[in-house]
Design goal:
Length: 193
């Protein structure tokens, strides 16, 4: 079943392009690169950042990760690349319009239909019609396939090309808050860095 919205309530506020990092899968990056007439490596270096987020498995425990006290839940680390941001919005947001609309990532296509862990998008009228991420029919098969690929093949083998690391092109999200991502942490994931 494809999610159906019966009326177009989007008022074009563009806040969804401003409030969130937009992560994508390798095939989506390739499609956007083709749309922009760039080679894949050039696109990765010019438009993508490292994006890592810890997602909880279980509630009500405490632990320490990189000096940050966490609820001691079981976490898994989501490793991916995300579209760069410029002036606190997606780099492809131009004059309140998506410059890559025809090849935009799935997470954008599903907004606000797909949400993690009780997220609320109070600014969005469409949020009242949205379903939670518990409905696994569209995004989760891709998400779990991607996680398995990363686990078995490592980040650099799944993406083929990765951007050069700088302090400005990486983001670690823990409990919904952005943390500084060090080169040492990234070397755990990319030993050749």
């Amino acid at each position: 079943m494809i999610f159906m919205i019966t009326e177009n309530l989007c008022n074009g506020c563009d806040l969804c392009c401003r409030k969130y990092k937009i992560y994508l899968f390798p095939n989506e990056a390739k499609a956007i690169a083709r749309n922009l007439h760039l080679n894949y490596r050039e696109f990765v270096n010019q438009y993508l950042d490292y994006y890592f987020e810890l997602f909880p498995y279980q509630p009500n425990m405490k632990t320490d990760f990189l000096g940050i006290v966490l609820d001691k839940k079981r976490y898994f680390l989501f490793l991916c690349l995300a579209l760069k941001q410029k002036s606190n919005h997606c780099v492809f947001l131009k004059n309140k319009q998506c410059a890559i609309y025809n090849s935009r990532p799935l997470i954008c296509r599903l907004f606000p239909e797909f949400k993690f862990y009780g997220e609320k998008f109070d600014f969005c009228k469409l949020d009242k019609q949205a379903r939670n991420a518990d409905d696994p029919r569209i995004f989760y098969p891709l998400f779990t396939k991607y996680i398995k690929e990363i686990k078995h093949n490592r980040l650099e083998n799944v993406w083929k090309y990765l951007p050069e690391y700088t302090e400005n092109n990486s983001c670690l999200i823990i409990n919904g808050k952005k943390q500084k991502l060090s080169a040492e942490f990234l070397r755990i994931l990319r030993p050749n860095l």
